[in-house]
Design brief:
Shape: globular
CATH class: Alpha Beta
Strand content: 15-25%
CATH architecture: 3-Layer(aba) Sandwich
Number of strands: 9
Order of helices and strands: HEHEHHEHEHEEEHEEH
CATH superfamily: Phosphotransferase system, sorbose subfamily IIB component
Strand order of the largest sheet: 3-2-4-1-5-8-9
Length: about 180
């Protein structure tokens, strides 16, 4: 077990066989927000939930050292920020580590959330906090827009038992995805 924890601490993915995370302590928050780290995440979520670590899972950002540095600098010095590809993140988050309950996982899209879940990281709750408007997307709640494919992915996760909540920041009005799905 000590070897596994040291790999997590070093931020290196483990290449051994993955186990499903559902038997391990739940992650503090799994959130879709296409802006990743920004004022709401730092000013509200991190103060409300006392996170010690943000793990950003995005293939594009993981390949861009400049963006990785920008996102790391956007966080307070006492908050560790790690950026991994989705595949690396699945390996890292499949580890039994001591700080899972204080880890926020940030994803840019429902597809990334599905890849994480299907990769073996079984989370019970998903917060959708921001998906910008773009061609092919329609507004579903506040600043959250989604395409037909993204709605289908969220339905898929909901059918797997993931409780999906549309909420930008704690304290504001939220909406359960299950309440919207019939209208979408």
């Amino acid at each position: 077990m000590q070897e596994r924890r040291s790999e997590w601490a070093l931020g290196r993915p483990r290449q051994a066989e993955r186990k499903e995370v559902s038997v391990i302590e739940e992650l503090g928050l799994v959130r879709i927000d296409d802006r990743l780290i920004h004022g709401q995440v730092i000013a509200v979520w991190c103060k409300q939930r006392r996170f010690t670590r943000i793990v950003i899972l995005d293939d594009g950002v993981a390949a861009d050292s400049f963006m990785h540095e920008v996102l790391s600098l956007a966080a307070p010095p006492n908050l560790r920020v790690d950026v991994f590809s989705i595949e690396e993140g699945i390996n890292i988050l499949s580890e039994d580590t001591p700080d899972r309950g204080t880890t926020m996982v940030l994803l840019k899209s429902p597809l990334a959330a599905k890849r994480l879940y299907d990769g073996g990281v079984k989370y019970s709750a998903l917060n959708v906090g921001g998906i910008g408007n773009a061609p092919g997307r329609k507004n579903v709640f506040k600043n959250i827009s989604a395409s037909g494919e993204e709605i289908a992915i969220l339905k898929y996760l909901m059918d797997k038992g993931v409780e999906i909540t549309l909420l930008t920041v704690p304290g504001e009005k939220s909406k359960a995805f299950s309440a919207l799905v019939r209208k979408l």
